[in-house]
From TrEMBL:
Motif ('HIGH' region): 42-52
Domain Methionyl/Leucyl tRNA synthetase: 41-182
Keyword terms of this UniProt record: Aminoacyl-tRNA synthetase, ATP-binding, Cytoplasm, Ligase, Nucleotide-binding, Protein biosynthesis
Major subcellular location class: cytoplasm
CDD domains: Anticodon_Ia_Leu_BEm (cd07958), LeuRS_core (cd00812)
Organism in which the protein naturally occurs: Desulfatirhabdium butyrativorans
Protein name: Leucine--tRNA ligase
Length: 862
């Protein structure tokens, strides 16, 4: 064993040993309890960033720990390789998405291996491989047969530059999250999955996810958004049809004075066609199409609208209500129509004031009288019904039910439940994605591809067109196809590709049997491994990815492919990695390596003083990033891992600190030197295995500290994943061991120190595996430290010495009590004062003084 800690040579050696021995490969073993540990897989962007490093380090510690605890651990890794991020990156780098993706996978895989993560690389998958997406094409066909997948026209967020549909979450301040260009609303025929059929089940099961963070469960519930209310029909005056609205406030229907339709509502153009309002309506709809059409986006815009020229009839009051199209009405909420009640909804109130529309109060607060002309804001509270016909005088909460009863009797409304959740639009007008296995025939219409023709392979020889436009519609070998139903030669293959969230909604099942070729996965393997015991990933995926994965699992369950309905038992959402920003007046944001150290810090390019900005999430745009490769070169993987775990609990944001990285390296160097100092004395000694009573007074505290540390580290990892406090406990033990002088030929000390140092290595091995493997081998162990059992603590060592303390009142014996050694004096005082026997002698009297003689007596003077 060398005196100097050399992480580069140690880490390279052990990574080669692990790979050569196949140490991390696992198989189903019914004799052992399974543990499926999974981190959200990355898309191959080109480089692993510090967010990846933190996420995967957390997972690797748990995987290694569980394996040492006797579990058969599945810990796989793969690539979320399809989708717009990879395609846009390829375009910006003037290369083909396939080449870009596969080259990045090779590079990132090397980076992950260099970190020493315990992945079973035999299970590696890439979602862009035909052998993977073949099976989601197969499931698509099954869903289509059952009506679970369907096609319809829908307004979508459309980016002209990227030539694709965007989810609301991909629209930022009205612009595309990738190219920054304005997004508009466009009507397209899209493929959808009927996730709304499972809305109630998804919502109910939110309360059956005890291993999930409460904030994530709440986010899922809010996204599903169940509302109880009424569906009410308003007859259109000029047409023999109704506008259907959903409202949670049927008690206010007598106060509905106008109707608002979403600009995308199919009735808007019909109602205005041929009227004096047509030009204004068309211009308004075109302008709103450029606004961000989401609840979040609406907050950025002034509420505005245009009269369509048509009217509808209030089914309860008979009032003739003007119909507007308004930018605050959204097709994705309710029915796309809003029963506007300005006296009792602030948004409607502001709109009515702006356009001079009638305001009618129908709910009056107790003991007050609201004057619409004098109101400065809507009244949304409870009260008594007024101006509501036969319902006047009723409490409005009671009137809700009575009014719906009347609407149902007149067949003009009904009780219903509405969900915020909308069906999952999976169509993407992009090239780099899984082809949708459908054919469009001029004679037969939409025809599914025969299962025997799967997979429909994405042609990787296709060149992207200008602006990133998909080449698939123009690719003759792909787009032109014979209809499998009638044989026509001029049928056209579906050229939309699937949303990349489809691939990430079942990859965890595929990991269980990645080479299985008779179906999506081997049912026996999935029955053994699934569900995932611990899932780890960023909170940014708290809604869509997790919700879609939960839905897709239900689809698999409905088809009898899996026996469970929830894919993830426990979920950990790790915090972000943050760092201060550095800004130069001339050169803008700077990378850390572009700044010279000193007081003040200066720009290396121009010498100007650098402004130290606030601590923010690491991002390339702000250049406040740290390259993991630079860390690995300077300090090694173990130091990088240790810092990521020690700097903060996993659920909190980690603030980057160069000093913290230095400190992590210094600690590992201390561990290395401590073992080097003792190796000659302990190499041939056997580790002390108790009982503690055999030890001398000098060694007994060491033994106790070892077992206290085992308990602390075990509980911190097992119960809370608080690796920072676990590491701190090991640091305390190491500090104690440094105080033990090395003495040759003292067998007791050597055996206790061997126990202590082996324990340090075992407890640190999930965290810094390379260093621990090296020391473990030097200690004479032939097998990997990962194959060793996790240490167990000795309960006897945790029990502290107890002392009998005499309790006196004014110098007279009144009681006795036992306390543990080192109990704080404050606690001893409280225990004595609360003693029942003592209470009889001090009740009603002022305590003047309390004298404590350590481990002997306590005298209460009254």
């Amino acid at each position: 064993m060398k005196e100097k800690y050399d992480p580069k040579s140690i880490e390279t050696h052990w990574q080669e040993v692990w790979e050569r021995s196949g140490l991390f490969a696992v198989h189903e073993d019914p004799k052992k309890p399974k543990y499926y540990l999974l981190e959200m897989f990355p898309y191959p962007s080109g480089k692993i960033h510090m967010g990846h490093v933190r996420n995967y380090t957390i997972g690797d510690v748990v995987a290694r720990y569980k394996r040492m605890k006797g579990f058969n651990v599945l810990h796989p890794m793969g690539w979320d390789a399809f989708g717009m991020p990879a395609e846009n990156a390829a375009i910006s780098n003037n290369t083909h998405p396939a080449r870009w993706t596969y080259e990045n996978i090779d590079y990132m895989k090397k980076q992950l291996k260099r970190m020493g993560f315990s992945y079973d690389w035999d299970r590696e998958i890439a979602t862009c491989k035909p052998e993977y997406y073949r099976w989601e094409q197969w499931l698509f066909l099954k869903m289509y047969e059952k009506g679970m997948a369907y096609r319809k026209e829908s307004y979508v967020n459309w980016c002209e530059t990227c030539q694709t549909v965007l989810a609301n979450e991909q629209v930022e301040a009205g612009a595309c999250w990738r190219c920054g260009e304005a997004v508009r609303q466009k009507k397209l025929s899209q493929w959808f999955f009927r996730i709304t059929d499972d809305a109630e089940d998804l919502l109910v099961h939110c309360d059956r996810l005890p291993g999930w963070p409460e904030k994530v469960v709440t986010m899922q519930k809010n996204w599903i958004g169940r509302s109880h209310g009424a569906e009410i029909r308003f007859r259109i005056e000029s047409l023999d049809e109704d506008i259907v609205v959903f409202t949670t406030r049927p008690d206010t229907i007598f106060g509905a004075t106008f109707m608002c339709l979403a600009p995308e509502h199919p009735l808007v153009h019909r109602l205005s066609r041929g009227t004096a309002q047509q030009a204004d309506v068309d211009a308004f709809v075109d302008r709103v199409a450029l606004q961000e059409r989401s609840a979040r986006g609406l907050e950025r815009y002034e509420k505005e609208g245009v009269f369509t020229g048509a009217y509808c009839i209030n089914p309860m009051s008979g009032r003739r209500m003007p119909i507007y199209t308004a930018n605050f009405a959204l097709m994705e909420y309710g029915t796309g129509a809003v029963m506007s009640v300005p006296a009792h909804d602030q948004r409607d109130f502001e709109f009515a004031r702006k356009y001079g529309l009638e305001i009618v109060v129908v709910v009056q607060p107790e003991g007050a009288s609201l004057d619409p002309a004098a109101m400065t804001e809507a009244y949304a509270g409870e009260g008594v019904m007024v101006h509501s016909g036969e319902f006047d005088g009723m409490p409005n909460t009671q009137a809700m039910q009575a009014i719906v009863d009347r609407l149902e009797a007149r067949k003009m409304g009904k009780r219903t439940v509405s969900y915020r959740l909308r069906d999952w639009g999976i169509s993407r007008q992009r090239y780099w994605g899984a082809p949708i296995p459908m054919i469009h025939c001029p004679t037969c219409g939409i025809v599914p591809v025969p299962e025997s023709d799967l997979p429909i392979v994405l042609p990787e020889d296709a060149d992207l067109l200008e602006g990133g436009k998909s080449p698939l519609p123009e690719h003759p070998a792909f787009a032109k196809v014979k209809c499998p139903a009638c044989g026509r030669e001029d049928a056209r293959r579906e050229t939309d590709t699937m949303d990349t969230f489809v691939e990430s909604s079942w990859y965890f099942e595929r990991y269980c049997s990645p080479r299985y070729d008779k179906g999506m996965f081997d049912p026996k393997a999935v029955a053994y491994w699934m569900p995932v015991d611990q899932y780890i990933g960023g909170v940014e995926h708290a809604i869509l990815h997790l919700l879609y994965s939960r839905y897709y699992t239900r689809v698999l369950n409905d088809f009898g492919l899996v026996p469970y309905r929830e894919p993830f038992t426990r979920l950990l959402t790790q915090g972000m990695v943050c760092k201060e920003t550095l800004h130069c007046e001339e050169h803008g944001f700077l990378y850390p390596e572009e700044v010279a150290d000193g007081q003040p810090r200066t720009c290396k390019r121009c010498g100007r003083t650098v402004e130290i900005g606030r601590v923010e999430k690491m991002s390339k745009s702000k250049k406040n990033v740290v390259d993991p490769n630079a860390l690995l070169d300077a300090y090694g993987a173990d130091t990088t891992r240790l810092f990521c775990l020690f700097a903060a609990p996993p659920e909190r944001s980690l603030e980057w600190s160069d000093q913290g990285v230095d400190g992590a390296f210094r600690f590992l160097t201390r561990v290395w030197r401590l073992c080097w100092m003792w190796m000659g004395e302990i190499r041939s000694a056997a580790a002390f295995d108790g009982p503690m009573d055999r030890l001398s007074s000098d060694m007994k505290p060491i033994y106790q500290k070892v077992h206290l540390t085992i308990q602390k580290v075990t509980n911190d990892i097992e119960d809370r994943f608080h690796f920072n406090t676990a590491i701190s406990a090991v640091m305390e033990l190491v500090n104690l061991l440094y105080g033990v002088p090395v003495e040759p030929s003292v067998s007791e000390k050597a055996s206790v120190m061997r126990l202590a140092l082996e324990t340090v290595v075992l407890l640190l091995s999930p965290i810094v595996p390379h260093l621990c493997e090296e020391i473990w081998r030097e200690l004479g162990h032939e097998e990997s430290v990962l194959l060793a059992s996790w240490p167990e603590w000795d309960d006897a060592a945790l029990r502290k010495d107890r002392h009998l303390i005499v309790i006196q009142v004014n110098g007279k014996l009144r009681s006795r009590m036992e306390v543990e050694d080192d109990t704080e004096e404050k606690v001893i005082r409280e225990m004595a004062l609360s003693d029942e026997k003592v209470q009889k002698f001090i009740a009603g009297k002022a305590v003047r003084q309390i004298v404590v003689v350590k481990n002997k007596l306590i005298n209460i003077v009254v």
